[in-house]
């Protein structure tokens, strides 16, 4: 895989057998900032590739949002039999690593980590740790903020497709009942959308009411709907899944939804409107970093996150005008800012 990033810092955690990776993709607009993902991978190369792609996504996310931060991401690749008793130690050693970098890399929660984990990382890594719990002076988890931005993006897609932002009666399928999927379903239900969801874990989404239908994860792609919202892991839109989709639009929070760049063309060829992931899912990063680093009020953060809907509409406009995919349009928007070297 080609990667035009700055560098990958790597450290073996002898105590647990975990590998700590910090990928710095770009420092052009500001210090590299991105979440910490904790997960098991088939091998070290897979973990490294994930860190590389995710850090690149962060570069585009900050640039497209006009936010003075660079792209970075941390991956804590843990063994399959990783014990929860080993977790605080690993998080503290990772925090020490972050501290040693003296502000070159700032982090926050991501898949597999929580605000509580950020509290532990910050014991060693402060002040370079966002999204701590409010009890520890942070702005809390980012999932609800991300969900607000995804909901605004879904409204923008509905406006484009159906001439109205209203979600009433729209059918929306959410893949993943996690820290974004759950608050997203609350927001969509408040807008009177018809909702179905899937999750690979039978435990996830247990608390959801009977009005929300559960779809088996293997059937989620062919489920007919207006909007399909990938809110789990990346790579779900690819040569195998795109032909199965029965939706009018794809708008979700997962990072790196496209398996490969050509998948944006595959979606367009099927007439499916795609809201680029790094635009639609920027709400958490923007709100938390805005509140903690720029002193925004929560009201200001909410306004900024809702404005993601306008950015999505703008990207659809560029795509239509230039006859390119929304993904290409969003990349162009971000690359212009990266070339200028300021937001
Ligand atoms: N998980 C966030 C994302 O992928 C990363 C993040 C969270 C960054 C909180 C900063 C603060 O966008």
CATH topology of the largest domain: the name is: Rossmann fold
The tally of strands reads 11
Strand content: 15-25%
Q: Profile the largest sheet.
A: 6 strands, parallel
What is the helix content? Answer: 40-55%
Rg for CA atoms: 19 Å
* CATH homology superfamily name of the largest domain: NAD(P)-binding Rossmann-like Domain
The assigned structural class equals alpha/beta
Distance between the termini: 28 Å
Order of strands, main sheet, comes to 8-7-6-9-10-11
Q: Can you identify the CATH class of the largest domain?
A: Alpha Beta
Q: Low-confidence stretches at least 5 residues in length (pLDDT < 50)?
A: none
How many domain regions?
2
| Shape summary | globular
Q: What string gives the helices and strands in order? A: EEEHEHEHHEHEEEEHEHHHHH
Average of per-residue pLDDT values: 97
The CATH architecture assignment of the largest domain turns out to be: 3-Layer(aba) Sandwich
Total number of helical segments? Answer: 11
Bound molecules: phenylalanine
Please explain how this structure is put together.
This protein is an alpha/beta fold and 343 residues long. It folds into 2 domains: 7-57 and 73-136, Rossmann fold; 143-280 and 311-335, 3-Layer(aba) Sandwich (Rossmann fold). The chain is built from 11 helices and 11 strands. The chain has helices at 44-65, 87-100, 115-125, 143-162, 181-190, 263-269, 277-280, 283-294, 298-306, 308-322, 326-340, and strands at 7-13, 18-24, 32-39, 70-77, 105-109, 171-175, 194-198, 213-214, 227-230, 249-250, 273-274. The strands form 2 sheets. Strands 8-7-6-9-10-11 form a 6-stranded parallel sheet, sandwiched between helices. It has a 5-stranded mixed sheet with strand order 1-2-4-3-5, with helices on both faces. Strand 10, helix 6 and strand 11 (273-274) form a beta-alpha-beta unit. 52% of the residues are buried. The mean pLDDT is 97. It binds phenylalanine. Phenylalanine binds next to strand 3, strand 5 and helix 8. Residues 33-35, 61, 108-110, 130-131, 142, 255, 284-285, 288-289 line the site of phenylalanine.
């Amino acid at each position: 895989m080609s990667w035009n990033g700055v560098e990958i810092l790597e450290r073996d955690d002898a105590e647990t057998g975990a590998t700590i990776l910090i990928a710095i993709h770009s420092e052009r607009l500001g210090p590299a900032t991105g979440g910490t993902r904790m997960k098991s991978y088939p091998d070290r190369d897979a973990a490294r590739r994930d860190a590389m792609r995710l850090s690149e996504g962060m570069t585009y996310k900050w640039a497209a949002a006009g936010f003075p931060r660079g792209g970075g991401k941390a991956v804590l690749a843990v063994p399959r039999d990783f014990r929860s008793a080993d977790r605080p130690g690993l998080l503290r050693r990772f925090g020490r690593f972050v501290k040693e970098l003296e502000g070159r890399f700032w982090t926050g929660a991501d898949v597999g980590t929580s605000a509580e984990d950020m509290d532990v990382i910050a014991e060693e890594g402060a002040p370079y740790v966002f999204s701590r719990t409010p009890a520890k002076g942070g702005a809390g988890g980012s999932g609800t903020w991300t969900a607000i931005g995804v909901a605004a993006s879904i409204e923008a897609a509905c406006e484009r497709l159906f001439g109205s932002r209203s979600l009433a009666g729209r059918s929306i399928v959410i893949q993943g009942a996690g820290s974004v999927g759950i608050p997203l379903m609350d927001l969509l239900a408040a807008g009177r959308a018809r909702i179905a969801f899937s999750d690979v874990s039978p435990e996830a989404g247990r608390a959801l009411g009977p009005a929300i239908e559960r779809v088996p994860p293997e059937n989620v792609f062919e489920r007919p709907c207006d909007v399909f919202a990938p809110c789990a892991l990346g790579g779900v839109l690819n040569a195998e899944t795109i032909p199965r989709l029965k939706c009018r639009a794809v708008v979700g929070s997962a990072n790196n939804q496209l398996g490969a760049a050509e998948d944006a063309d595959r979606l367009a060829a099927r007439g499916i409107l795609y809201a680029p992931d790094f635009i639609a899912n920027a709400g958490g990063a923007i709100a938390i970093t805005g509140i903690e680093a720029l002193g925004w009020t929560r009201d200001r953060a909410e306004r900024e996150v809702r404005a993601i809907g306008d950015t999505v509409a703008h990207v659809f406009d560029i795509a239509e005008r230039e006859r390119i995919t929304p993904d290409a349009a969003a990349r162009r928007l971000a690359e212009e800012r990266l070339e200028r070297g300021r937001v």
